[in-house]
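G., before I forget:
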Amino acid sequence: MLLEVKNLKAEVAGVQILKGVDLTVRAGEVHAIMGINGSGKSTFSKVLAGHPDYTVTGGTALFEGKNLFDLEPEERARAGLFMAFQYPVEIPGVSNSALLRLAYNTLQNERGLEELDPLEFDDLVQEKIKVVEMDPSFLSRSVNEGFSGGEKKRNEILQMAVLEPKLAILDETDSGLDIDALRIVANGVNSLLTADNAVVMVTHYQRLLNYIVPDYVHVMDGGRIVRTGGKELALELEARGYDWLRAAA
Amino acid sequence: MSAALQNLVNQPYKHGFVTDIETESVAKGLSEDVIRLISKKKNEPEWLLEFRLSAYRHWLTMEEPAWANVSYPKIDFQDIIYFSQPKPKKQLASMDEVDPELRRTFEKLGVPLHEQKLMTGVAVDVIFDSVSVTTTYKAKLAEIGIIFCSFSEAVHEHPELVKQYLGSVVPSSDNFYAALNSAVFTDGSFCFIPKGVKCPMDLSTYFRINTEGSGQFERTLIVAEESASVCYLEGCTAPQFDTNQLHAAVVELIALDNADIKYSTVQNWYAGDENGKGGIFNFVTKRGLCKGVNSKISWTQVETGSAITWKYPSCVLLGDNSTGEFYSVALTNHLQQADTGTKMIHVGKNTRSKIIAKGISAGRSNNSYRGLVKIGSRATGARNYSQCDSMLLGDRCVANTFPTIDVQNTTATIEHEASTSKIGEDQMFFFAQRGIDSEEAISMIINGFCKDVFVHLPMEFAVEATKLLGLKLEGSVG
């Protein structure tokens, strides 16, 4: 079992957002979490990653059997939990390759492996960058500075490609992408999927799921997962909207 | 701000060290007699005594400046010892006798071993013996006509040059602290690059020991004749502790036709503890005169220490087509206060200046950029580009920008950009989510922020400065 969340409750600024979320993710699976704005799906990903604004008030989350909430955010990352950000931050003056190399070598240290020097790392990253069809010049540019929305999202997937996480949570990675960028991002994610890792996509829209086909679709509403189904559930949502589910719940 | 970030920036400064220098001093206080005594002890010529006395007489008529955005208890100028000759430091047999914490600091900063020894008073080995290194390089430099020596030595060996240039850029009546320095300066450096000579090495890297004991009222004079060029490095990244609380240095640079002077500083004086107790008050006057056509003076500074910094390295662009540059990083933490910036005075035609100033404030510190760009009426075609960026760590520090632009010639082109940013929770969370701990994250963000300045530092200085900023914010050694 990669991730096992039970009855998770969390609040931000004193307001309870998550009101008992259950989710189980096994290696090799692709999950999609859908829902309207304010349903708690972005909060759910941030809570798992350990964003300091959110306070867990109940429930449990095990990551490969370890209590996730015993780990600092950076320890969760080093354990193999990755989150692609909805709004990637800009880091002026810090080159993309320097950031990637620091993050990569931090993981190497964690695993007791040799750090890569800049030349060795460059060989590695030149291969990875093909995954997201980015020009190598992006490596020497400052992290996300002056990047278009689509380039920022591709950059997140590049980081995922370099770090090879066990579980990647894509927080609305499809929002703001045009159709070409969406295809590139989706192809990138698909090429990284193996039997040993898993992806959880948080999204509003069905269209991403045409490219990255989920094994499970969960619908979140009012801070709970109110329905789980196969990929056909997403199509049903696309056709009927969310209201019929809300009424049912 | 997260608790982790708060803890990081509030860790105590652990790098200060006290050197036990026995001193030969005159009594406290300042008077004409004290100045005569200083001059006599240094065996100075009459004209220099006169220079000191006239500075002193002018100083008596001046008011301590109050316009800077800093506050500190009133300084009692009669409670200061104006002359003390340091006796040699106690010699230690090896680095093993040096405080291990200090050694770790040196290691973290990457200070070369022989310099560590020089700074801690360890007996140095044959290869790096300070005297022989100094002598070897001095001889080499002398072959091509470069004079590089202590200020006192220059007064005796090259009086005509000192007399010609001393006070020609910063007159003794220039400001309160410059006047005080002119009256009581004890020593410093003198550097003269003759016509057509490009100094083959960065000056002062191997001469850090030269400035020992001349810290309080230091005087530096650098002259580059026609088509000469020189890079000068001042200070070091290693922490510097001094029992003298008041520092008032004066640095004068003169560039003749087609000459080029690059002056780099890394300042890490003791800044006081996190409650603002102790720490150096640093009131410095630095000015360069681009006297000749096509001359260029470039200041690069990394200011990380001192309780109070009051410092505006400036350029007077007198020669046509001359260029002035100012690249600065000023970091303040705890209760440090910095009011620093530059003045670019355009007098000649087609003069150009560039200002890149980066201020980083953490803790409860107060960091101000103050700048003046002045385009004189004759400065046809003058250009200036200024960029002032501030970064805040936490929510209890302050950053200010006080730019002044005074244009008296309509053909001038002036650009000014400013930004304020904050190391936000989102940036820190992003780094954490990529597995990077908060100390490394802050270090990376800060160094990215300062990149435009660090590229102008000499390579080895840049590497040290990068580590220094991380250290100043981490507050822990190893």
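Residues 11-23, 121-133, 205-214 of chain B have pLDDT under 50 and may be disordered. Chain B is about 25% helix and 30% strand.

More on Monday.
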